[in-house]
From TrEMBL:
<dbReference type="Pfam" id="PF00106">
    <property type="entry name" value="adh_short"/>
</dbReference>
<protein>
    <submittedName>
        <fullName>Uncharacterized protein</fullName>
    </submittedName>
</protein>
<comment type="similarity">
    <text>Belongs to the short-chain dehydrogenases/reductases (SDR) family.</text>
</comment>
<dbReference type="InterPro" id="IPR036291">
    <property type="entry name" value="NAD(P)-bd_dom_sf"/>
</dbReference>
<dbReference type="InterPro" id="IPR002347">
    <property type="entry name" value="SDR_fam"/>
</dbReference>
Length: 274
C-alpha cells in the first residue's frame, strides 16, 4: 500500500547508512524523495536505483516514488543551506516531510581530551544542521500554508547515558536535538507542522560498520539488549519513519521515540562495565 503517495520527503545524509535506508523505504511506500548529502556520486547512484524501481512499478499496483539528488553539507553556512532547500522545493514543487538524518560521531574522546574543533564539527552537523534545515523547510511550509512532518534522528546517547564510551560531544549534541524537537513542536504546531525525534540504539551504518565487524559485539547483545539482538534499520527504524511521515500521525508531535530493543532501560549493564 502506497501510504505516502503524493508526499515529497527530503532526507539529509541520504548517501549511505540510515539515510539510504530511509530514502529507499519512503520511496517504496509512494513518496517522491529528495536525496541530500555531500557525496554526489553516491547520491546519483541511489537516485538511479530508486528511479529504476519507480519505473518498474508503473502500472503494477502501488507506485514507488521517484528521486532527485541535491549535493548538500548541512554544516555549511545558512545561505548555502537555504539555497539548497529552495532548489529542492522547486525541483518537486513542495516538501511535506523532512528527515534530519545527517550526523557525525567524531573520534572517541573523554571529557578531558575532547578537542574544541572536534566538538564544533559535531555540533555544526548534528545540532546546527538540524536547526537550519528545519528552519529553511518550515518557513516555506508556513508561507505556502502547508502542514508537514519533521523527523529528527537522535540517539539513545541523548536520553540518559552515552551509547558508547568516549562520545561526549556526540551524546550531548543528540540530547540537544531532542530538546530542539520539543520546542519546535510547541512553536510550529499551530502551523500544522509536526516535529518528532527518534532516539535510535545501535544500528549498523557507515559510522558503526567497524563495530559490527567485531565478534564480541554480537556476544554482548544478549547482555545489554533485552530484545537479545541488534536491530535492523529496515524495518525497525524505517517503519516508524513511514508512520511519522504519513497522515496517520496527524496527532503525534513533540515525542521522542526510543528504538533500541530496550537497551536504554534502567538497571541494564553499560558498555564500560562489560
Amino acid at each position: 500500500m502506497a501510504v505516502l503517495e503524493g508526499k515529497v520527503a527530503l532526507i539529509t545524509g541520504a548517501s549511505s547508512g540510515l539515510g539510504r535506508e530511509f530514502a529507499l523505504s519512503l520511496s517504496k511506500n509512494g513518496a517522491n524523495v529528495i536525496l541530500a548529502a555531500r557525496r554526489k556520486n553516491l547520491l546519483d547512484s541511489l537516485c538511479d536505483e530508486i528511479n529504476a524501481l519507480a519505473n518498474q512499478s508503473e502500472g503494477k499496483g502501488p507506485r514507488s516514488g521517484k528521486a532527485v539528488a541535491i549535493e548538500l553539507d548541512v554544516s555549511a553556512s545558512e545561505p548555502v543551506i537555504d539555497a539548497a532547500v529552495e532548489k529542492a522545493w522547486a525541483a518537486l514543487g513542495y516538501i511535506d516531510v523532512l528527515v534530519n538524518n545527517a550526523g557525525l560521531r567524531g573520534p572517541v574522546r573523554t571529557p578531558i581530551d575532547q578537542e574544541e574543533h572536534e566538538w564544533n564539527a559535531i555540533f555544526n552537523t548534528n545540532l546546527r544542521g538540524t536547526w537550519l534545515m528545519s528552519k529553511a523547510v518550515s518557513k516555506r511550509l508556513v508561507a505556502a500554508k502547508r502542514g508537514g512532518s519533521i523527523i529528527n534522528i537522535s540517539s539513545i546517547g541523548g536520553i540518559e547515558r552515552g551509547l558508547l564510551p568516549g562520545g561526549l560531544a556526540y551524546s550531548t549534541s543528540k540530547a540537544a536535538v531532542i530538546h530542539l524537537s520539543k520546542i519546535m513542536a510547541m512553536e510550529l504546531g499551530h502551523h500544522n507542522i509536526r516535529t518528532n525525534a527518534i532516539a535510535a540504539g545501535l544500528f549498523k551504518s557507515e559510522i558503526t560498520n567497524d563495530l559490527f565487524q567485531k565478534e564480541w559485539l554480537h556476544k554482548v547483545a544478549t547482555k545489554i539488549v533485552p530484545a537479545g539482538k541488534w536491530g535492523a534499520v529496515d524495518p525497525d527504524l524505517t517503519s516508524l519513519v513511514i508512520l511519522l511521515a504519513s497522515d496517520d500521525s496527524q496527532y503525534i508531535t513533540g515525542n521522542t521515540f526510543i528504538v533500541d530493543g530496550g537497551q536504554s532501560l534502567p538497571g541494564l549493564p553499560i558498555w564500560s562495565s562489560l
